[in-house]
Amino acid sequence: MEFVIENTHARHSGGHGMVVLRLQRTYHGEGTNGTLSMAGQPICHTIELPWRNNRRNKSCIPEGRYRLRLYPSVRFGMRMCVEGVPGRSGILFHAANNAATELRGCIAPVTKLTGHGKGVYSRVALERVENIVYPVLEAGEEVWLEVI
User: Fold this and answer.
1) Would you say 83 and 18 are in contact if contact means Cβ atoms under 8 Å apart?
2) Residue 30's pLDDT is what?
3) Residue 48's pLDDT band (boundaries 50, 70, 90)?
4) Assign residue 6 a region: left if phi > 0, alpha if psi is -120 to 50, beta otherwise?
5) What band does 2 get if pLDDT is binned at 50, 70 and 90?
6) C-alpha R_g of the chain
7) Pick from 125, 138, 136: nearest CA to 37
8) What is the pLDDT of residue 4?
9) SS3 140
């Protein structure tokens, strides 16, 4: 599946000065797969850890609406951070192709899903998301993530 999205339409999804990304998930015992979209247009797929009652470093985050901010990670450089997750902090968007071995609660964009919690070409997908989100955040506008 090819994902194409125009950044010029970003602000239409959440109102003036706001972008809303929607993460539609499918839960599996080995990992969580998702599709990230904006204004009804798919951007990429995602992989996460399985749902394990929001346990730190063991689970994907709960469904809900969260604000994204830029965060200077020592390990990953400047990344998008998911804020307001109950009982959790440091939830980032970063590259990974296998949730079980490379994630500790974060979200990894991937170009193609290859299994439960597994995908390929994560850096390509991450760059696609960053190209949409970073200019909005750098302009001082809000970006929200709806996890459903």
Assistant:
1) no
2) 97
3) very high
4) beta
5) very low
6) 14
7) 125
8) 41
9) coil
1 closest CA partner among 82, 94, 121, 130: 121
pLDDT of residue 63: 98
Average predicted confidence (pLDDT) for the chain: 91
* For range 86-113, the mean pLDDT: 97
CA–CA distance, 79 with 75 (Å, rounded to integer): 10
Give dist(CA 138, CA 29) in Å, integer: 37
Q: Is the pLDDT of residue 8 over 60?
A: no
Structure tokens at 15: 């109102």
Helices and strands (H and E) in the chain: how many: 2, 10
Alpha-carbon distance 128 to 111, whole Å? 9
Main-chain dihedrals φ then ψ at residue 144, nearest 5 degrees: -120, 145
- Per-position b or e across 79-106, b if 16+ CB within 10 A of its CB: bbbbeebeebeebbbbbbbbbeebbebb
